Amino acid sequence: MSDAIATDHLPASRAASADVPQVDADTPVRVRFCPSPTGTPHVGLIRTALFNWGWARHTGGTLVFRIEDTDAKRDSEESFLQLVEAMTWLGIDWDEGVQVGGPHEPYRQSQRKDIYADVIDKLKDGGYIYPSYSTPEETEARHRAAGRDPKLGYDGFDRDLTAEQIAAFEAEGRVPVWRVRMPDEDITFTDMVRGEITFKAGSVPDFVVVRGDGSALYTLVNPVDDALMGITHVLRGEDLLSSTPRQIALYRALYAVGVAAYMPEFGHLPYVMGQGNKKLSKRDPQANLFHHRDNGFIREGLLNYLALLGWSLSADEDIFTPEQFVEHFDVHKVLANPARFDEKKAVAINGTHIRMLDEDDFRGRLLPYLQAAGLMAQEPTDREKEILAAAAPLVQERVQLLGEAVDMLAFLFTADADIATAEGAMKGMPADLGAAVSAAREALDALPEDGFTTEAIEQALRAALIDGLELKPRQAFGPVRVAVTGKKVSPPLFESLEILGKASALARLDRFAAEQGL
């Protein structure tokens, strides 16, 4: 049991004055991203990080990255490292916080218990929190007796306990929690996203900030950290909007005891919705940021799309670079309406950003995907590098995700004998397939090794198949395409044949002829 409360010096509980300095246009911007390290990085969570980063960079302010790791059962170091990986990959850097340090260390809640204990003592001494002995069952019983809904929550019974009542509860061995007294008046604030919002007096019950064992709850430590770290703008998810009146009441108390210097501005970002207008669940693959990265999103494309989940550069402009985002981002222009994660649109935007890359950059980003598929060695051979350099431009204009290029280019890194004809690839072939394959082989074989170029290949095949056999282009080149790639659709045929080289092209035509019994 905890030490009995000495009541002779305990001030009467009170709500703090609403007269707290406000952040203004001249206050240097300090924002924070403070996730709990649980699970994999959710796109909605990373969108919150992005908007905080964008506001800090746009205003020349400071981004603080701290970790709320007080839930030992759910928090994990693996999840923390994944958050760092996700932010680093997207290019979201931070000025203070975990891994980089700063003037307000430590930046993990689990390492700040002494700080919270000191603040708790200040709040107790000032009378801004009060001991509450009521059990949930007693509170429900009082509601029933008064004809109220028993689920209304705490009823303020312990607000004004006398010293004798406290002594009696202590004598029973009860251990109190500690609550903040909500003001008996409306709480109004101007949300940076939603405008003026009012919570009516009595709509938010007095809330617990200290457990019976004396440890601080999240309801206390989050605003305390914000206050001590000088956070000026609290940008967070819409789900936390209902907690704002509690935090405003607590901030008033923190200001009164010298912990807070001012009241921050609050902005609540819209929900990210999935299919069917439901909140994007952690169980939905689309919610996992790494799902998109692994499928072939590039950082510029995904950052662009995440920024569109509540904000836009202009009514008719969806494509912008990270630099343009920083230049134009204004949290006051974020929309309050829920934003739907449209993967089809995200993929299209990513494709545009892929086409904006220079060739060397695109090639470098493609390499890990080809290596992961086993098409290129971890230490690529000279021949593999040569193929990639020649082939990358052929797919850069055609892919929307880097992962799509793996399937498109696989035939170039596959041994001639291992090319397999895909199901459905033979549909639409010319009636005399044997003649077409034979004519194509003869035309290519007639070209010299050093003259096996895209232009020469195209001229030779057109002369043999279109002029000679009078085939339409699709029927003329279809057999050659399937023979050398195994597929009905591939990167440009003539360029692909040049990359493969004469010997490989002929070998693949021979393999195809044998496979088809020609």
From TrEMBL:
Keyword Aminoacyl-tRNA synthetase: yes
InterPro entries per the UniProt record, alphabetical: aa-tRNA-synth_I_cd-bd (IPR045462), aa-tRNA-synth_I_codon-bd_sub2 (IPR020751), aa_tRNA-synth_I_cd-bd_sf (IPR008925), Glu-tRNA-ligase_bac/mito (IPR004527), Glu-tRNA-synth_I_codon-bd_sub1 (IPR020752), Glu/Gln-tRNA-synth (IPR000924), Glu/Gln-tRNA-synth_Ib_cat-dom (IPR020058), GluQ/Sye (IPR049940)
Domain (Aminoacyl-tRNA synthetase class I anticodon-binding): residue spans on this chain: 365-512
Positions occupied by motif 'HIGH' region: 35-45
EC code: 6.1.1.17
Keywords for the protein's UniProt record, in alphabetical order: Aminoacyl-tRNA synthetase, ATP-binding, Cytoplasm, Ligase, Nucleotide-binding, Protein biosynthesis
Pfam families found in the cross-reference section: Anticodon_2 (PF19269), tRNA-synt_1c (PF00749)
Cellular compartment(s): Cytoplasm
GO molecular function per UniProt: glutamate-tRNA ligase activity
TM regions (residue ranges): none
Intervals of motif 'KMSKS' region: 279-283
Positions with a binding annotation for ATP: K282
Gene3D superfamilies in the record: 1.10.10.350, Glutamate-tRNA synthetase, class I, anticodon-binding domain 1, HUPs
Occurrences of domain Glutamyl/glutaminyl-tRNA synthetase class Ib catalytic (ranges): 29-345
SUPFAM superfamilies hit by this protein: An anticodon-binding domain of class I aminoacyl-tRNA synthetases (SSF48163), Nucleotidylyl transferase (SSF52374)
Role description: Catalyzes the attachment of glutamate to tRNA(Glu) in a two-step reaction: glutamate is first activated by ATP to form Glu-AMP and then transferred to the acceptor end of tRNA(Glu).
UniProt subunit comment: Monomer.
NCBIfam families, A to Z: gltX_bact
Family: Belongs to the class-I aminoacyl-tRNA synthetase family. Glutamate--tRNA ligase type 1 subfamily.
Protein name: Glutamate--tRNA ligase
Organism annotation: Micrococcus lylae
